[in-house]
C-alpha cells in the first residue's frame, strides 16, 4: 500500500491515479468522501457550518466509490455525484464538514474497509491524513508538495471561467482551514517528500514510482 498526502492542487489525485494505473493497483481518493458528505448535507438542506446537523446526516449517508484508476464513480445512494462534488461550491463548504471529529472517525472506518477489500496487488490512497492517521503503518508514505504558485497555476488551468486570483484565494482558504485539523504541510517521521514544483506531470509520476521501487528494494 502507498499513502500519499499533500495540500490542495499538489497533484495527489491525478498523480496517484496514474501511479496506480501503471502498477496495476487500486486507487482511493479519500477527499471524494468528504466532498460527497458535504454534497449530501447540502442536498438534505442542512447548514454545513452546524456540526450537529452534519453529524445527523451520517446515518443516511450511503456512500460508494470505485478503486479502478482507469475510471471510478462516486455515488450517494442512487445518485452519481462524481462531477457535482468537484464544483467550487462544494470545495467552499467541504472543510467545515471535514473538521468535525465524528465525521472523520466515520469516514476513516469507511476508508479502511475499502482498503481491506481491495483485490488488486496494492492500493494507492491519497488525502490529507493518510500517512499519519488512516494508514500510518503503510510500507510507503509520501508527502506530495508543490509551491503555492505552481498549485494555483495548475488549478487555474483546470477551472475555465474562474479568475486566477479567485482560484488562488479559494485554494489558500481551504489549505488554511484544513491545516488546522491535520498537518499535511510537513512530512511526519518516515514520510518521503516529493516536491513537484519543478517537475512536469510525467516526471512527478516517475518520482513517486521511484520512491515505491526504492522502498520495495530495501524491503528485500
Ligand atoms: N507535476 C505536475 N505538473 C503539471 N501539472 C500537474 C502536475 N501534477 C499535477 N498536475 C495537474 O495539477 C492539477 C491539480 O492536480 P490534482 O487535482 O491531482 O491535485 P490534488 O492534490 O488532488 O488537489 P485537491 O486536493 O484540490 O483535490 C491537475 O490538473 C493535474 O493534472
Ligand atoms: N484525507 C482527507 C482528504 C480530504 N479531506 C478534506 O476533504 C477536502 C477535499 O479533498 P480533496 O483532496 O478532494 O481536495 C479537503 O479540502 C479536506 O477538507 C480531509 O480532511 N482528509
UniProtKB/TrEMBL annotation:
All residue ranges annotated as the Cytidylate kinase domain in the record: 2-213
Signal peptide extent: none
Localization per record: Cytoplasm
Catalysed transformations (reactions): CMP + ATP = CDP + ADP; dCMP + ATP = dCDP + ADP
Superkingdom field: Bacteria
Residues binding ATP, per UniProt: 6-14
Protein name: Cytidylate kinase
Gene (UniProt): cmk
Amino acid at each position: 500500500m502507498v499513502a500519499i498526502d499533500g495540500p490542495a492542487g499538489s497533484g495527489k489525485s491525478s498523480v496517484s491515479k496514474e501511479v496506480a494505473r501503471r502498477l496495476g493497483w487500486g486507487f482511493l481518493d479519500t477527499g471524494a468522501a468528504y466532498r460527497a458528505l458535504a454534497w449530501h448535507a447540502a442536498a438534505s438542506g442542512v447548514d454545513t457550518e452546524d456540526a450537529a446537523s452534519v453529524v445527523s446526516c451520517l446515518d443516511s449517508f450511503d456512500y460508494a466509490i470505485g478503486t479502478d484508476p482507469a475510471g471510478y464513480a462516486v455515488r450517494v445512494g442512487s445518485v452519481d455525484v462524481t462531477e457535482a462534488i468537484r464544483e467550487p461550491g462544494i470545495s467552499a463548504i467541504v472543510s467545515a464538514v471535514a473538521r468535525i471529529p465524528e465525521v472523520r472517525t466515520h469516514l476513516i472506518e469507511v476508508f479502511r474497509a475499502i482498503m481491506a477489500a481491495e483485490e488488486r496487488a496494492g492500493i494507492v490512497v491519497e488525502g490529507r491524513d493518510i500517512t499519519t492517521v488512516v494508514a500510518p503503518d503503510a510500507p510507503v508514505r509520501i508527502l506530495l508538495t508543490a509551491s503555492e504558485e505552481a498549485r494555483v497555476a495548475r488549478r487555474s488551468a483546470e477551472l475555465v471561467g474562474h479568475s486566477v486570483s479567485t482560484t488562488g484565494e479559494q485554494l489558500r482558504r481551504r489549505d488554511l482551514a484544513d491545516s488546522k485539523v491535520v498537518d499535511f504541510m510537513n512530512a511526519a517521521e518516515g514520510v518521503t517528500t516529493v516536491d513537484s514544483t519543478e517537475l512536469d506531470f510525467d516526471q512527478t509520476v516517475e518520482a513517486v514510482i521511484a520512491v515505491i521501487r526504492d522502498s520495495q528494494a530495501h524491503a528485500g
